User: Fold Ornithine carbamoyltransferase from Streptococcus himalayensis.
Amino acid sequence: MRNRFKGKDYLAFKDMTKEEIEFITDLSLEFKKKWTAKEPHEYLKGQVWAALFEKNSTRTRNAFERAAADLGVKVVYLRPDEMQMTRGEPLKDTARILDRYFDGLFIRTFGHEIVEECSKWMQNPVINGLTALEHPTQGIADLMTIKEKKGDYRGLKMCYSGNLYNVAYTTMIFCATLGIHLSIACPEGIEPNHEILEETLRRAKQSGAIIEFTQDFDAALKDADIVYGMSQYSMGQSDEEIAFLKEAFKPYQITMEAMKKAKPDAIFMHCLPAHRGEEVTDEVMECAQSVIFDEGENRMHSIKAILAAVAN
Ligand code: CP
Assistant:
């Protein structure tokens, strides 16, 4: 596929076609080969990108900084608390000013409308490093990991246990797009975002993927090739919401007993950070089926591919 991302924004899987998702995943695997072979790839030498993080990050920020360094891109890290935006300067002014200085913006923020607003006012590419709606750089790392460990996507079953939030939504879209059977184990009363659910079901109809929500954890685990753990709550949720979710998700903790209910060669994935003892046990995190550190490394290769693809 021709690179359709050049000069464009990278905001959400819900806006991407199957071909585009597969293109970036395959490009990420190519960048991983270059990294492994120690082959220089400073394809964007001379570019300067801004990184604006309104929430904490270990993987996304450092993966972006390392990916940028390998591509020859200088990164200017912006602290929101040091900028006028936290003193009321409108985002549309901030975005247009940043656009005059930088070749692109990598942003982690709260509402998805914030990245869409940046995209509206900036000519240069905007990459979404996580919003409440999606985590599309994580999604590519996850697909890379699945392809590396399982060879292909079609015919696989994933059991997902964790909060229905950004990572879940990106996962729902990619499973529906690529024909992965997704069984989401979650307590009664937890509803996904309606826009994402509609788009997921539309795509599932085309691909034939089964997308289901169940309170029956054992049924979700049965025959699963991938057990995906995710925090029971997310950054930005209130203390009250967190207390409710921790209680509601207790029966869905991923333990070694739970892993035994999946296929014997099932892999355990988690976007990290994990809360050991909450959504997953320490034993599962450290077990032979756990691929969490390969998945974490893949954040760097996938962000590199995204950056290389969208850069002008
Ligand atoms: N998975 C993920 O986004 O990790 P960070 O919050 O550390 O960036």
The chain has a mean pLDDT of 97. The radius of gyration is 19 Å. DSSP finds twelve helices and nine strands in the chain.
